[in-house]
Amino acid sequence: MELKTKFRLHRMSVWAGVVVLIANLIAFFVVGKLFPPISPASTATEVAAFLTENRSGILWSVVIMGIFAPFFYAFAVVTSLQIRRIEGGWGIISMIQLTTAVVAPTGWVYPMAVLATAAYRPGRDPELLLMMSDQFWLTYVGVAVIFVLNVASIGLAAIVDKRAKPVFPRWFGYLNFFLALSFFPGVFIYLFTEGPLSWNGLFALWIPACAFPVWKIAMIICLLKAVKSEEQEALEVQARELVSLGTVRAD
Questions:
Q1: Which residue in 63, 51, 33, 84 sits closest to 227, CA to CA?
Q2: CB 75 within 8 A of CB 105
Q3: Using one digit for the tens of pLDDT, what is the confidence trace for 215-234?
Q4: Half-sphere exposure of 149 toward its Cβ, with a 13 Å CA cutoff?
Q5: Omega of the bond prior to 36 within 30 degrees of 0, cis?
Q6: How crowded is residue 213: how many other Cβ atoms within 10 Å of its Cβ?
Q7: How do residues 83-134 score in pLDDT, each as one tens digit?
Q8: CA–CA gap between residue 188 and residue 185 (Å, rounded)
Q9: DSSP secondary-structure letter at 35?
Q10: Nearest-CA neighbor of 9 among 67, 81, 60?
Q11: Residues near 190 by Cβ (< 8 Å), separated by ≥ 6?
């Protein structure tokens, strides 16, 4: 593959992350009206009313995420490829990042499919709808703890990079550690129905919800710079090889 084509694909993979971020915001905030979330203390009647009133939006939000969430795979792969540069080949950090990142689309779409199932047929037993709503929020918010390891692996890669021209800036490594910690409280939502550690609480939802776009934007900026630096390195190597080949032929 030509270098120009290769790195065009890499840049497109980074921009795929922008597509996912925008789709996520539209699906949850605008179309599905899922934020702010309903309270864990909501009654079955209240949950049933919410699902009935927002039925169309919920179903369309799942369609949107079903179409655009898979674009995250390209974003995950290009991230691992940059970490691979740091490790000098596929290693423990790049593989941890990749394997924890590939669950992201499923972690978004599957819980939403559960909520869509609850909204799909109006008139179901409110108690059943309450259970399915609980499953949605407990799954969607609770699985965020998986990304603690994902984001931390990116931070670790940035910190251990000893190259003369690092792939990622050092501040980016510390930012990833900080943001990884912000995702951790989500795992405690299974224990609380109110307060900062419930699924609509400050530590479990709102801080991670604010941290995610910050992380995403920082990732996009740093990845674009990393891809550009890799392309420059590849072009320099190619130029040296052409000079060397020309010298050999001249001899």
A1: 84
A2: no
A3: 989 999 999 999 999 999 88
A4: 16
A5: yes
A6: 12
A7: 999 999 999 999 999 999 988 888 889 999 999 999 999 899 999 999 999 9
A8: 6
A9: S
A10: 81
A11: 138, 142
